[in-house]
Amino acid sequence: MATLHSEIAAVTDRMIERSRNGRQAYLDLIQRERDSGADRPKLGCANLAHAYAGTDEQRDKLRDGRGMNIGIVTAYNDMLSAHATYYRYPEQMKIWAMEVGATAQVAGGVPAMCDGVTQGYSGMELSLFSRDTIAMSTAVALSHRTFEGAALLGICDKIVPGLLIGALRFGHLPMLLIPGGPMHSGLANKEKARVRELYAEGKASREELLDAEIAAYHGKGTCTFYGTANSNQMMMEAMGLHIPASAFANPQGKLRQQLTRAAVHRLAELGWNGNDYRPLGRCVDEKAIVNAAIALLATGGSTNHLIHLPAIARAAGIVIDWEDFDRLSRVIPLLTRVYPNGSADVNAFEEAGGPAFVIRELLNGGLMHGDVLTVAPGGMADYGRKPAVEDDTLVWNDLPEKSGDDSIVRTLDAPFSPEGGFRILAGNLGRGCIKVSAVERERWIVEAPCRVFSDQAEVQAAFKAGELDRDVIVVCRFQGPKANGMPELHKLTPPLGVLQNRGYKVALVTDGRMSGASGKVPAAIHVTPEGVAGGPLAKLRDGDIVRLDAEAGTLEALVDAAEWESRNLAPAPPPAIGTGRELFGMMRHLADEAERGASAVLAGAGL
Q: Is residue 407 in some structural domain?
């Protein structure tokens, strides 16, 4: 393993110094919880009787109190393809726990909504705050003080960050995440995108579009593009919180079952009274957070993690900001091309080498911390090997030196780009970020008159009316967490892509989010301060010249400084009601800025 790159060391040191007080307070907390927390022998008899009443086959084992009791926190529902796979997991995990003298109980369930279902509709305004709801639900599940460890069952966009935020407040417990794997490949992602653009132009029928979408999303498992859900899985590998290389084994088959069985067995080994105690709060340290950011950059992962990773870090007393991402992006090469950054899906990525290949390359090149406390016994090196089932036994094998397909995954000596996929933008319009890994270099700079909207439906209507057929920077403001919960604006991708295909210079500027599937259209997103909180996007007027420059890292309204200073802020529309959005008013009120994680629960907790 090579010497760590000096810039990665410098960014890590910056984080450690900035986080010093908060991290120490966190470590003190989990030590106090360790001293007084999971103490089943100290609980009252009535308390224990209530805890054991729901089980028959495990009751005697629970009563003797000598084995680890694993709390299962599950995001199962059968409306999400990725989480439908968890249906049988708890009953299987109970059997596998008993094999090693442990027990397991479903501690609780957490909500898991699908952004793919709510994209472009009112339910998407609950999406980001579902992460905070999941964090609180995880805390409720683990609050019974009857568990010596926990297994977190979740995969998709807000679910993994929410589970971790909640679980980290119980960081004295050993925990790991158990993935379910991606669905098998269906209609190619590029073909799906092509039909979407045809539909946006009126050249494909609704029936043709529905056929294409169902052919793409056709079975149980995670969606196969490299969006937020699959970026989650890459990050959990890089943080050492999975059984190694378990992210992208498909749901069906012996390998997936054996990986889940191994996860239960390993969790029992990390136990409260064992010789290999590895609490979650010690595993998730500054180096693990840096590793997660590096893995994201090296693979061109989802922009949503510029919000989620800071929130996860805060729950462990750590501060990471966008400058850290930007500095890391300058030295981390892009090693993968997976849709939307290429044509391959995650199944092809896995076949070509997958996360294990990327992690091995980064470790060997001194571009990732190798000295991280992981749930795997051999540390980060274990995450650079691939699992297989041989004679009904789970084994891990070394990877070939070369990629299985260098159009998808490459070695450090021949990256797709010498830099990672993100840049920070700053100027008189605020501070935001842009994902450039899928944007052609000649489109990194766009200067054009802007057209200002306060709702994504208005953008779609203007597109259909032909009002955007020109060089244009579309501004969609009042989309931040305080305004309406910061929905993803993925429905804008097809029309803006059509305009770009027609030869126009096009970009999006917003205080909202884009999907993890965002791609070829340059988009300045997460702009902070947001418009509803007095941010400068509220000063823009139709026709103002805006310059987005990802080369220089600037986002500017080219308006005379005196005039700009004198302008009044446009009023924000009132909060919408319906679809339960009114129930989340408290979260909108408490939410902090995007760079800190856009979290209400962390802000409300003073973290």
A: no
